[in-house]
Amino acid sequence: MNPEYIFTLFILIVLPLLYLLILTKKTHKNLPPGSWGLPFLGQTLSFLRAMRTNTAENWVQERVKKYGPVSKFNFLGTPTVFLHGQAANKFIYTCDCNTLANQQPTSVRRVMGERNIMELSGIDHKRVRGALVSFLKPEVLKQYVGRMDEEVRKHMEMHWHGKEQVQAMPLMKSLTFNIMSSLIFGVEQGARRDAFVEHFQHIINGVLSMPVNLPFTRFNRSLRASAKVRVMVKELLREKRQALKQQHTSAAASANQDLISCLISLRNEDDSVLLTDEEIIDNALVIMVAGHDTSSILITFMIRLLANDPSVYATIVQEHEEIAKNKASGELLTWEDLAKMKYTWRVAMETLRITPPVFCSFRKVLTDFEYEGYIIPKGWQVMWAACMTQMDEKNFPDPSKFDATRFEKQSPSPPFSFVAFGGGSRMCPGNEFARIETLVTLHYLLSKFTWKLSCRNNSFFRDPMPVFNDGLSIHIKPRKL
């Protein structure tokens, strides 16, 4: 037999088995129930298949029915404990940093970098989160409403006006990427932004894939695209540092004009830099990928909802008519206008409850701990689908029914059962950015167009984010509020 073939089998089968045995031999008495499955692969393929066929919820329910809310399995070559339910959400979101640490699958960590906020814990997490929030807090974001407004108008003029049929999902991805590119990187329309678009698409396609670095794999293409983006962002850092040095003579250079400029200007009390270049780059990548993808998915699902639900459509249009009639022609939206879009945001929240963009998350076990009577060993990873509690009738009566009035209350559900933006100290720092982006976009969609779905079959799958099979094709007509 070919020696290279034998060596490959050893790497893919024997080593993962030895790894699992080493990790589990000391705590074999009280491990959670479950099966390791195939060497290295474990249940990876069955889970990814469920994501691709939009049956991940069924995958979780069947697992919980078979093993209970705590079970073990092998995911992407790593021993994993799956936790389920509201108690699990609370435990993970409030657990101390000495027990659980942020950790994404190997593919995410390799592509996004090890210093991104999803990988950090303790003091480092607090420091990086504080830096990001300094740009993403409401009092700072107020000044960017006008810039988002202008990006949305340019997008509508270029891609919607004069068209009879469009694909909503790719257009929303393009729009949110342009907004993020402008406000995160400070990169406006042109060749540089076009290059970012191409590379980020490869990054997104391979960020949650089997971490096999061979030339024909998604993971390999994602790694190569990540490396190219890093080179581009390093050049941006150099340019922006130079611009900040000249800010006294150039009004264009400002520490608050984009996230990159903000982060490189932050200092500790001793005037040392708050974040390293590696941390700035890794976190800019994460925010770009997570932010543009999640917002575009939310807006796309809202477009589908408004085409299917005349009652919700009529109510939301009325809200925007009231705002539009008090605006002069060409006048930009303001922070005060967004504050009046209360029903629109409740519709967005209910949309997130039923169809969350992110299905599952991960943590790394730093020390042995006990949960529900089982020992979870150091070195394992925790995986949980936090959003499953959003479709639990104990938390949301008649959970399959779309009802935006659920969010009229300040606390529409028990703690840690609605987790669209995380929970505890792990709340998403970009949730206010997403709110502004969504509301501005919906205002101009509703102000300028009516639409209907092009076909009855508007199903989607997860890869790992939701993707519509036909891009959510819609017929559009111009209108004016």
TrEMBL record:
One of its GO terms (molecular function) is heme binding. GO terms for cellular component: membrane. Keywords: Heme, Iron, Membrane, Metal-binding, Monooxygenase, Oxidoreductase, Transmembrane, Transmembrane helix. GO terms for biological process: sterol metabolic process. Belongs to the cytochrome P450 family. It is a single-pass membrane protein. Pfam families: p450 (PF00067). The chain crosses the membrane at residues 6-23. Pathway: Secondary metabolite biosynthesis; terpenoid biosynthesis. Heme binds at residue 428. This is Cytochrome P450. It is found in: Membrane. SUPFAM superfamilies: Cytochrome P450. It comes from Dipteronia sinensis.
